[in-house]
Amino acid sequence: MSQNTAGPSSVAAESRAGVYRFISNPLIVSTSDGRQFYGTLVATDRDRNLILSEATERLPISFDSRRQERFRYVGMIVVPGKHIVRVDVESRLVDSKERQIQTITSSDVI
Q1: What pLDDT sits at residue 86?
Q2: Which of 16, 22, 51, 108 would give a disulfide with 43, using CB separation of 3.0 to 4.6 Å?
């Protein structure tokens, strides 16, 4: 049976390094109350909070009595890590001009 020699601090460092590679990339952050935030990742911290710039909030239909999605510009926002349920990284392939979405788990966000 093999033993894992990596301690908690090295695992956390690897997770942070994984998230830092998405700095300056557009993200779609889904929260526990059903909202989504579309914006560019600026920073993160040890509490798994994400700071997005040029962010837009999408309110789900249940938040709006008009029964349609609503968007509002929020600018720079801190999304608390304890409320993040999903993070999608959006990137565009330059040569094929296709949209590609990659999901990272909230445990990757440290």
Answers
A1: 93
A2: 51
